[in-house]
Amino acid sequence: MNDFRHETERLILRSWCDADVAAFEEACNTPAVTRWTGGLQTREELAAAVARIRATEAELGYCFWALERREDGRFLGFCGLKQLTADGAPEVMHDQPEIGWRLREDAWGQGYAREAAQATLDLAFTRFGMDQVYAITLEGNAASWGLMRRLGMMPRPDLDFDMPRYGGHVTYRIGRDQWMA
Q1: Is residue 116 classed as helix, strand or coil in its secondary structure?
Q2: How many distinct helices (H) and strands (E) make up the chain?
């Protein structure tokens, strides 16, 4: 069992537990939240996704951690790191660190994603010793790539790609030297 826990001013990033599958379904399995991630999923698909996330953490020590609000323990979604394995991604990006996030709709616009992503990037470069971190999103997901820019990530149009199931993706990157500056 994993027991990662990292607190920010308003948030807790932590390992997933069994009860999080239902919380994840309630929080993030909505048309608005899944608009850019392939659409609604069944409970079985969500449980399988959480199982993969937990296996990633067991293997690597990091994952897309469960995200909750400190003041009331409310499940907000996830934010964290994984190895980039997207279909269609350029070979140079395969198995490189990727940051990702997904938050419930009523948590949008409150700075939670940025706070969680900043903590995640700090962990990537300090605790996990990564040299660089990528982020990808669909071309139309302006909110996501806008956050990437606010985090100091730089667009890498030379690495943009089409994912067979989803379409055109934009790629952003930040190196340890840029983050630590």
Answers
A1: helix
A2: 5, 9
